[in-house]
Each structure stands twice: as C-alpha cells, then as structure tokens.
Amino acid sequence: MKKDVSFDSAGLKLAAHLYAPDSANGARLPAIVIGHPGSGVKEQAAGLYAKLLAEQGYLTLAFDAAYQGESEGDPRGLEDPGQRVEDIKAAVLYLSARDDVDLNRIGVLGICASGGYAITAAVADHRIKAVATISAVDISRLFRLGADGRQPAGVFQSMLEAAAMARTTQARGAPMGVIPLFPDEEQARAGGQHLYEGWEYYCTDRARHERSAKFFTWNSVDRIASSDAFRFIEMISPRPLLMIVGTAALTSWMTADAIADAREPKELCSIDGATHVALYDKDEFVMPAIRKLAEFFDTKPSAASNPVTTPVS
C-alpha cells in the first residue's frame, strides 16, 4: 500500500511516498528511509526499492530531496549535500514519530549519491540503526575525479571558476545559471558507459520522469566541492553497514574505498555483471539486491572481526 505523505526538513516541505506491507496488522514495523540518486525522484529507483522492500515486511519511505521533484525549495535544481543529509535525518524523524514504527529498527538505504549522504547522516544520527547503499557515490569525488576516478584535475577547477562567476553574476541581478546533466543521445553514446546509461535511464522511456532533475544550479558546485561523504564512515560502527555494488560499475572503486575504511560490522555485496545504473531497475540485478537487503535489515549487528564479501550472481 502506498500513500502520499510530507514532512519538514530545515523549513522546507518534502514530498514523500510511504509504502506499508499488506500484512501490517497494527504491529510496530521495521522502517527504512530510501534516498534517490542525485538527479532522481521518488517515483524512480527509490520508489522501486521502497515498494519491493515493503513487500518483504518493511515500512518504507521514499522522498524527493529539497529543491527537487515535488518538494519545496528554490532555486530548483540545487544539489546541496548538507541539505540532502538533513533531508535524510528529517525523514528518520518523521518515521520515529509514527506509532507503527519500531524505533529500534529504523534503517537507511541510499542509492548512488544518496549512498554517500546516507553514510554521512548515519555517522552523527544514532536513531539510524543500520545503513545500506546501492551503487554508492560520494558526489564530491564524482565531480572531482569522474565516474572512473581518472578525470583530469583541471576539469573540476574549471567548473569551480564557472560557479564563482555565476555567483558574481547573480549578485549583480542576473539569474543563477544551470549545468545540464545529460547531453543529446549522440554525445551520450560517445561519452562512455556511465554517461550513456545515465542518459538512457533518465532521458528515455526506460525511466524518464517529468520531475527528475535535468540540471543542477551552478551554486551546487562549490557546495559539492567541500563535501566528503565517506570521511567519517568508521563512526557508523558498531551499527551494521552493507554496501551493494555491481561488478561492472565504473563507480565501484568508491564503494571499495569506503568499505575498506569502515569498521565492523560491515559487508560488501557484489552483484555479478551489474553496472551502476542497472541496479536501479533491472530485475536480474535488483531482485538479488532486494533479497540481500531484506536479510541485512533483519539481522542484528554482529561482532565479526573480519569484513564479509558476498558475491551474488
């Protein structure tokens, strides 16, 4: 069962979908906040995972980030890591105020950029009892280093110069400019796997949605530059951490780096053959991830001394 709900995040009203299992029967339920990718909305990957995990017995909440989707906030298309982290904490607060939620079993699942935001939120918010990620990305590393980690440093420095100019221009009365996130099909095909599969997901009938972000504002860039999603990942311990990544994802190095720095209990789950975006909606990859997530959120923290790596095919 899905219904529209809303909650406040730093003075902004966020739009959300709450999914409940059919067999709730008035019991207090384990609950999961689910954050969407950087350019996504609650109706896309986050909503799919919310629906499927609700079918596994969880109360799930997929929401639109501030400044995006149906949520409040101007300028539209602002990607503010600090606000995104606050949005997750506000979603946890919404769930913790409900009579049908087990306060000892509130977890967070972050997809893509929300994987990084979920880790940052959990570091300081002990209401979050377990953290999981899908195709996790630290958006600062993505912008600075590229999807494969090999982007020349000058690319992001040029973006910071443009962002500074945009702020100055705005101070003089002009509108804040925007950065298009997706090129046309020909440029997307020429841009490599990560760019093309992002274009295919967000810009074709595969998953296109009228409210998903097609641009970020230029004043997103310097906010992104100074964030560091995985910096304090070790502080999640002793709460459990699960990071799911595709073996064919160009961004998998970010998950590998993050899980190496995390403390126990932690688990890396590799989905054989999955690319970064394939884990958003492809059944052959999503369903093994759902089974692993359902098992993870149903498990108490362990005292294991060695990291666990689980290949899934």
The total number of structural domains is 1
Number of strands: 11
- Stated plainly, the CATH topology is called Rossmann fold
CATH superfamily: Alpha/Beta hydrolase fold, catalytic domain
**Sequence of secondary-structure elements:** EEEHEHEHEHHEHHEHEHEHHE
**Cα Rg:** 19 Å
Beta content:
15-25%
The level 1 CATH classification is: Alpha Beta
List keywords for this structure.
single chain, 313 residues, alpha/beta, Rossmann fold, nine-stranded mixed beta sheet, two-stranded antiparallel ribbon, 37% helix, hydrolase activity
Describe this structure in words.
GO terms for molecular function: hydrolase activity. Residues 11-141 form the Xaa-Pro dipeptidyl-peptidase-like domain. There is one protein chain. By secondary structure, this protein is an alpha/beta fold. Helices cover 37% and strands 21% of the residues. The strands form 2 sheets. The chain has a 9-stranded mixed sheet, with helices on both faces. Helix 3 (113-124) links the parallel strand 5 and strand 6 (130-134). Helix 2 (81-96) packs across helix 3 (113-124). The radius of gyration is 19 Å and the shape is globular. Mean pLDDT is 95; it is low at 300-307.
Blueprint (SSEs and pairs):
Blueprint lengths: L1 E8 L2 E8 L9 E7 L9 H10 L4 E5 L17 H16 L4 E11 L1 H12 L5 E5 L4 H7 L7 H19 L6 E3 L4 H6 L2 H11 L11 E3 L3 H5 L15 E6 L5 H10 L4 E6 L6 H4 L1 H15 L10 E5 L1
Helix pairs in contact: 2-3
